Amino acid sequence: PFSNCLGIPVLTVGIRRYTNEENRGFAFGLFYVVMNVGALVAGPLVDVLTIYYNEKADGDDDGDDEIIADAATDSSSSWTM
User: What does the pLDDT look like over 36-64, one tens digit per residue?
Assistant: First the structure.
């Protein structure tokens, strides 16, 4: 949330300032694609990093960090259609 309140208005103003009528539609389309991909990646990334850092803070060094990494990159996720 904090990065959104700093980044989104700055990017919007930058697009308005540095584009013209010919390429403004493409620039806004690219902006929304990047914003949606970032939103899609942010949730799982925050979950994986939270699990990783919580285990490191607890001193749990039993070697199941590989399981977390495998779960994060598993292609048989329920997200596939």
Answer: 888 888 888 889 989 988 887 776 555 55
Q: What share of the chain is helix, strand, coil (3-state, %, to 5)?
A: 75, 0, 25
In one-letter notation, the amino acid at residue 63 is G
Give residue 73's pLDDT band: very low, low, confident or very high (50, 70, 90).
low
DSSP annotation of 63: S
**Residue 62 DSSP class:** S
Axis-axis angle for helices 2-18, 24-58 (nearest 10): 160
Output the DSSP codes for 40-75.
Answer: HHHHHHHHHHHHHHHHHHHT--SSTHHHHHHHHT-S
φ/ψ (deg, to 5) at 2: -65, -40
* Cα end-to-end distance, the chain, whole Å: 29
